[in-house]
Amino acid sequence: MGLTVAEKCIKRSIVYGDMTKRGSRIGIRAHQTLGHDLNAIMTFLALDQLGIDHVKTELSVQYMDHNMIQADYKNADDHRFLQEMTSKYGVVCARPGSGICHQLHLEYFGIPSKTLIGGDSHTPCQGGLGMLAIGVGGFDAAMAMAGEPLYIKMPYITNVHLTGHLPEKVSAKNIVLEVLRRIDVKGGVGKILEYTGPGVKTLNVAERSTITNMGAETGATSSIFPSDENTKAWMHAFHREEDWIPLSADKDAQYDDVIEINLDKLVPLIALPSSPGKVVPVREVEGTKIDQVMLGSCTNTALNDVKSLANIFQNNEVSDTVDAALYPSTKTVIAESIKRGFFNPIVNAGIRIFEPMCGGCNGCGFAPQTHGVSVRTTPRNFPGRSGTKDDQVYLAAPETAAASAIKGVITDPRDLDFPEYHYDLPNEFIQLDNLFYNPIHVDEVHYGPNLKPIPHFDRHQDTESGEVLLKLPNNITTDHICPAGALYLPIRSNIPEISRHSFMTIDTTFPDRAKAANGGILVAGENYGQGSSREQAAIIPRYLGIKAIIAKDFARLHLANLVNWGVVPLTFKNDEDYQAINQGDDLKINLNEMTPDGDITVTNETQNIKFFVTTPLSIEDIETVKWGGRLNQMRNRSDEHVTA
Amino acid sequence: MGLTVAEKCIKRSIVYGDMTKRGSRIGIRAHQTLGHDLNAIMTFLALDQLGIDHVKTELSVQYMDHNMIQADYKNADDHRFLQEMTSKYGVVCARPGSGICHQLHLEYFGIPSKTLIGGDSHTPCQGGLGMLAIGVGGFDAAMAMAGEPLYIKMPYITNVHLTGHLPEKVSAKNIVLEVLRRIDVKGGVGKILEYTGPGVKTLNVAERSTITNMGAETGATSSIFPSDENTKAWMHAFHREEDWIPLSADKDAQYDDVIEINLDKLVPLIALPSSPGKVVPVREVEGTKIDQVMLGSCTNTALNDVKSLANIFQNNEVSDTVDAALYPSTKTVIAESIKRGFFNPIVNAGIRIFEPMCGGCNGCGFAPQTHGVSVRTTPRNFPGRSGTKDDQVYLAAPETAAASAIKGVITDPRDLDFPEYHYDLPNEFIQLDNLFYNPIHVDEVHYGPNLKPIPHFDRHQDTESGEVLLKLPNNITTDHICPAGALYLPIRSNIPEISRHSFMTIDTTFPDRAKAANGGILVAGENYGQGSSREQAAIIPRYLGIKAIIAKDFARLHLANLVNWGVVPLTFKNDEDYQAINQGDDLKINLNEMTPDGDITVTNETQNIKFFVTTPLSIEDIETVKWGGRLNQMRNRSDEHVTA
């Protein structure tokens, strides 16, 4: 039987399990890894405990793109720590300001058919190059760097079949918005979205990567495109044609389901506040007054986007009631934009130009005003993620965002007069000299005062008891659990400090209550832990004493983080039992009953009733979580080894 | 008798007093005012109480350049408030990101021989254009906008006589560093530094403005150059030649003192941590390992500086152990740099490019690492100002900073191989379209939740008593009293909140002790209140109950702020009495004895001794400070009016 593109990639990296059995446990080994300055601190702290001298991958790259404000010593300390650690372990390290990790990786390192494991949820961006790219938490990134396999459930493969051509003024971002409109923020869980059909060849690599990048918001394990002549042209332009190989699905490849999208029929779409899945045509909300526009993020502002913006702003200015900013995605994009004359029309239109970084997308600057309405080209608009608690963030294509900036209200770009836009990929991109550090000599790694050791967690008891400290609704994001924003990101490497802000947008009393109760249990609805890969969203509840989370279901990446850090994930056998539980109830859970298939008894001691839960974990993961997390388990193994 | 350039300007704006009597009280009326987003919130709150509909100046301009990080809603709320207030009062308002106030003002508005009163200590930057430009606190800026005179002591005029030409690789910044090396941070108090001699014509307006800008660090009331053909060329290049007039000192003009500087003999200089007055030749500290370089601020990074940097970085890269950043001074500089090819060599060298703003200079981003050593082209390096408490910040010319970035250690630029640099002022600068907002219609001004009303302060008693809550050394800066940095700047408009951080680098217990003691008295050495114009450095001690400050002497700008906000400034009659006082002593001050010349009795009740102090205030200012500040005084006058 023929293989899909995703299967061909998995075939190349699989080291355990059977890829023909969808949903079964498989292990894949990364050819490459990537990390960034926000999540990789934990990666290197973990790597330091794994007893290796040098990373075991073909290539591992560290980027500096998230924690870039440097309001005090903390970010700069982290950057120094990462520069030293990467020199020590043989990891390529980008300078702060060189660009956003996923976009720089597309330019310099991504290779079709190989496997990338990245410590960031938008890692699937490289799927635009035909690379299998999967986002993980920092600990799993460390394991991948140490040459250990990543264990996942073999994904189902969805065929996203594209036909036709995008109409004028409707750019590629609208394709992924259409996917989200159809399947929402958990429609991709357990799946790889593989793009096929005659529409594929109408899209260049940057456009494809916009789609695979934001595909993360569906909950998918990854998204991927074939590697074809457009891919070859991209790699040629970045002087890497020798790494190109063609990659396409076999004619008789079989998919598990299909999503048909006729590009001819697409209209400008927009995600409403505050979920990337609340997608509607721009027409439905046009005229809504806005305060701010952000052009940037890993999803957009490659060179094609900047050219489109230059084209629009050539004869248009930002409204007097709007503050607009551009974050170019990389320094390469800056240099090319300057060379090609794309920058000055944007500068002239009244747009602020920031350095290449994640910036406003995760609340590192450019937060909107109180109740501020912001239209952004970013992939995510979870509540408060912008840095302003009561924000109203809409997500759209650059053309929609630009038209809205000009008019001061949400505007369908087809209603704005600007010249037809044509973009040809440059034959050759400028190669800048100093985007990456040379390795430095490291006598001693500097741990700044904000960098605290990984906390120690105990092994679980056979029976765990505790109060339900929060009863949460559906779609709790990692932003809820562990806040984003310039005020909180710098303390991500300081678990005692960041834990004080856990669930701050939901219930500011939670951290104190959890400590006072000596821990407890969380209850949640569907899709618990959607969003970013930050493992702190698992570590800080654990640090506050949370032993187990009972939810209707979990987001894939967060589930893996819970296992790694020893928080027991449980799912209701009957979803209606969710209704019966009240915050404050005391629960007792028989963890000794935990198996991949079996029922686990939970006693609600307050209400004096019993109900059943199951665990979505494999037998191996159950063992890990019982140990209280992967680090405990590994330490124990090495202790056994020492005492043997 | 002939007049100096400064006297010719004063003659044009004086409305009270006798300019021939140095040190006497004079009143001058501003033709123009400027403000920025950090200090002008208080300006507009005050203006709102002055009962005018429209500013009374020829031109008032508001800039957005300090509070630009937007870590949450506060900065954006402030920007909206300022946009609305400026529309209401007829003030020109720049967009955030358009540029640094002083540099944009040089490009668009400064006029030789006119008087500018600005709510920022570096306002004398416009002296490079032959404008009399004086920095004040936000309240005095409001008064100036309302058409009220600014009362100052008629300055002494110092002749800074320049001969010769600057040697290669020794740029204009070294001239002001040489002035600081000679007279230190209070050598300019009560003076205007007027530049004369054949060396003047060798300097263009941008170079002159670098000198007048940083001249603020000497404590001078202002610094000024003549207006000549170079000034005309500058104004022509910015399409404002019609505003140019020639301005030079009369042949028989008389100066109060003279500083002779032979430019031929100048060498690269550098100010050591942590005072702009600790200037030595770069040679004395060359080889010192550095971590960071910041190129930017109101003092440097006009187009000539960017060209110089491009020239150096054409064939050189930033060291692997240095993080370097460029803040261009305005969007005009960005557009011109792009057009002329200055940007890509800088990008290629590994330098981060930020938007035009004050940025790292006042700790709004780019803080160095713990114990970090930073070489900066900024005007100020007070302790902790960078955002990192234990910073080690050196101040130097762009060429020294660039050479140090390349070598990784402090480096004399004459030791680095780079092509000879030649800069001709462009005949015409690009005029950008959307740097300034058009006025908007304002139904209601939005006061964000962080914007608190001006606190009410009581009238002083005839006798004030209190504990000496802090005994402070010489050269206490406004950064000590009211911290800079990205974490504190956003709460400057929230006096209760910012007061919690007063004197945080000296004694974190001060705010709580002050509250517990229901206020008290501060004792300080020389030059109390040097540095920035922030009036919060007067308001927050007052808010915490500080009634009087007894110092050896005061910085001019801060002294005016103390009067405006009702903190009584007193100076020791005999400086040795400073020694005798201990922190914790209870003092009783007979404020009813306060006159411009007379002794005021202070009883140290703890030690049971008496000593005498005087006040540096005029009879008018004594009246104001007794009222508990200018707003009290004005309110009382209007109450009298109402009841009369």
Indicate the multimeric state: homodimer
Full CATH superfamily name of the largest domain in chain A: Aconitase, domain 3
Strand content of chain A: 15-25%
Number of domains of chain A: 3
Largest sheet of chain A: 7 strands, mixed
Mean pLDDT of chain A: 95
Count the E strands of chain A: 26
Unreliable stretches covering 5 or more consecutive residues of chain A: none
Q: Kindly name the structural category of chain A.
A: alpha/beta
Short synopsis of the structure:
In chain A, 27% of the residues lie in helices and 18% in strands.
Structure report:
Two copies of one chain form a homodimer. Chain A is α/β, with parallel strands linked by helices and 644 residues long. Chain A has three domains: 5-265, 2-Layer Sandwich (Aconitase, domain 3), CATH 3.30.499.10; 269-415, Aconitase, domain 3 (2-Layer Sandwich), CATH 3.30.499.10; 463-643, Alpha-Beta Barrel (Aconitase, domain 4). Chain A contains 20 helices and 26 strands. In chain A, strands 14-13-19-18-15-16-17 form a seven-stranded mixed β-sheet, with helices on both faces. A seven-stranded mixed barrel of chain A has the order 20-21-22-23-26-25-24, surrounded by four helices. In chain A, strand 9 (156-163), helix 6 (173-183) and strand 10 form a beta-alpha-beta unit. In chain A, helix 6 packs parallel to helix 7 (205-214) and helix 9 packs parallel to helix 12. The termini of chain A are far apart. In chain A, 63% of the residues are buried. The model of chain A has no long low-confidence stretch (mean pLDDT 95). Chains A and B meet through helix 3, helix 10, helix 11 and strand 17 of A and helix 3, helix 10, helix 11 and strand 17 of B.
